[in-house]
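Fold this sequence, please.
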Amino acid sequence: MSSWMSALAGGVLIGLAATLLLWLTGRIAGISGILGGVIMPSKGEWGWRVAFLVGLIGAGAAWLWWVPGAFVPRQGFPPLLLVVAGLLVGFGTRMSNGCTSGHGVCGLGRLSPRSMVAVMVFMATAIATTYIVRHVA
């Protein structure tokens, strides 16, 4: 399957999952918030969160089984740098009260002004970081 078709299929599935979660539970599909609720659960909130995360991981595993070689890990990234980057993403999601999935997929779909600002900050930061990593550092 070509890369644009994979991207299109992935985007459709993400949108479908976010829509179904909102319709069926009234919850926003913000992955950092869903994971946070598994780590520090509220009463009656744990089951659907675990089911969503298992489905997320299971869908990726199924795709890898169905299309061998679909995921090709990038080489040459120092593990410590990846850990620091992951921690910074987690810190950023806490600061903005949501992650790219919650703000970008769900918030923009609901025409949330707060999500629009958050996504503009996410994108500006991503563009600046990419430029620095590829052209300055």
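The first helix runs from residue 3 to 25. The mean pLDDT is 85.
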